[in-house]
Each structure stands twice: as structure tokens, then as C-alpha cells.
Amino acid sequence: MKLSTPQPTRHANPTTRASELAYLIFERPDIAKAEAFLMDFGLLPAKREENVSFLRGTGTAACCYVIRKSQTPRFAGFGVTVDTEAELNALAALPEANGPIVQSTYPGGGRMVRLTCPSGFEVHAVYGRTPVEPLPHRSPLQLNSADGITRINETQRLTVTAPEIIKLGHVVLEVPDYQRTAAWYTRHFGFIPTDIQVFQDGSPAVAFMRVDRGDMPVDHHTLVLAQGVVPKYSHSAFELIDPDAVAMGQRVLRERQWHHAWGMGRHLLGSQIFDYWSDPWGCHHEHYCDGDLFTADNPTGIHPVSRQAMSQWGPELPRSFTKPKLTIAFLRSVIHSLRTSPDLTFGKLRTLMKLFG
What we know:
Elements: E1 20-28, H1 31-41, E2 44-48, E3 52-56, E4 65-69, E5 74-81, H2 85-92, E6 102-103, E7 111-116, E8 122-127, E9 167-175, H3 178-189, E10 192-198, E11 204-210, E12 218-219, E13 223-227, E14 232-239, H4 243-255, E15 259-266, E16 273-278, E17 284-289, E18 293-294, E19 301-304, H5 319-322, H6 328-340, H7 346-356
Parallel strand pairs: 1-4, 5-8, 9-13, 10-19, 14-17
Antiparallel strand pairs: 1-5, 2-3, 3-4, 6-7, 7-8, 9-14, 10-11, 11-13, 12-18, 15-16, 16-17
């Protein structure tokens, strides 16, 4: 199967090559409530100010999650890191830049420029963040198998506690203006499409994109763009040490009465063992482990879009995971997107509704 439209594809000479996903930015009316879920989920406090909270994992990133105080809850955007000041200057010269380069006030510091992508999400490009000392986390469990014994006269006993999040892994966005948005991210940040799911006509439905670190292996995807009917956050994912950590996360979050969204299972594209939970405003957050890694030379895979392609094993993707709330505002946005988006058609809308509710 071939891709019938020009995006997403890797850009021959991108403005920059983003090195990693730095942090997510959410706006919430109740910061304490947001923190309560996230700390049960496994994130740790990094810094707290009057109207903003920063959380981290056990890795070297000073923060990976930002909560800004706001009356209206929403996903605002995310930050990515770049490796040189020249790249930061190049991004600051773009029409999409919202002002000059400034000193970041977020934990880890560095210099940053704020941009707005074609779908309206806030994107921070950060250079020179100072890493912090990693926090201790348990080692992966040694497993006995029929072909290899690693544990004799010892038992497996886990502490019942929130799982230790190692790092922020990826973010998934739905966008109606697909071609323009995908082209923006591949052109200006050098994202490489790892796998693309396509509609029957060959146009892209979902693209899993990774950062370009040359010969250095990187996660199967850091940014995922899905053809949608409105610009929307789908979910974000955080890496744990092993499958037992994912399962323990499920136990703890169930006991603390948070809302389970989907899992456990193993994805097909990316291969991660996953489990999804919803925060108090219905935004999905994923625990995962054992994901695929690729170098820059690995070619793009093309696959038909389907519900079956979401996982190799585990419970079927529930309709509630992807079904939107049918409000008047949402329906108006759908009509607007159908009129203005060059990518969203009635045919694609019917397919999306059939597959994902």
C-alpha cells in the first residue's frame, strides 16, 4: 500500500532536529486535584508556584509536566528540546514564533522560543536545559522462564505503591488540517514518520513519528498526529521499568478510585505494553514499557487503519476511549472543519465514526 498524499514524510533539510519531548502543558481550574491524580499515577513534585505546578519523573529531566491555573481546563501544548543555539535562532525567525527568545522560568532553565503550530497548539522549543540528578528507581524484575532460570531460592515481592515514572515518552494529537500540520512538524523539527496508518484511498489517518538522532536508537514515536475533526489532545504516555510496574500502577490507581480507560495490552505499532487512565477532566494518560527503538535509517511502514491494529493482545479498544462528547460546540466545530479543512471529507468522517465511535 502506498501513501497517496505528500505528508507525512521526512524532510531533507529541516529547520531543526528536535532531540526529545521536554514537557506537556495543561491548564486546570484545580491544580491540587490535578496533582493528586498525577502523583498517584507516578509523577513527582518538582516545583510549585502560586499559579503553576511542575512535576517530574525519576530521570534527568527537571520537569516533564506543567499545570497552569486557568478557569477552563484544556491541553495547551508541549515543549521539545533542540541541541544548538543556532537552531533556536532559526525557529525564532519563523512567522509562527510568538516573540523573541527568552530565558525559560521552568525547572531546568535554558533559553526558549514559543511557537504556535498550524493546529493551534503551543510549542516551546528549548535549548540548554540543565539536567538534574536522576532519582533512584527499582531495577527490572529478573524473570524465570522455561529456557532460562535467573532466580533461585528468591521470591518476587513488589511494594504496593505508585509506579516510578522514568520519563515522558510521547504525545498524540488529533488535527483536522492534517497535511499542513504534519508538514510543519517534519519541516521545522525533523520528525521522521516511523509508521503510517492510511485510509482506503491511501491518505494518512495516523502517523507515528520519532525524533532524528542519527545512529542513536530512539523511541518508535515521540509525536503522533491523527486525522481528526477538531484540534484535540488524544493522550500522552510515560515510561515505566517493566510490565509488573504497569500492572502495579493499575492496582494502585484502581484502589484510589481513578477512572480506568483501557488496558492492559500490547500495542501493534511500537509494541509497548500499555495501560491507560483518565485524569479528572477525562484526558488519557498512558503507562507503558518495552517499546520498540529505531535509528534514523529505518524506513517508514504503511498500514491500513483499523481497530485491530491498535493492539496485539488485551481488551478491545473501548468506544468510550475515542468517542467524543456530542455537544453543540463540538458539532459546530465539525461543520467548520468539514467546510475549511482540505483533508477532512465526509467519507473520512464516516470511516472515523465507524472505527472509533
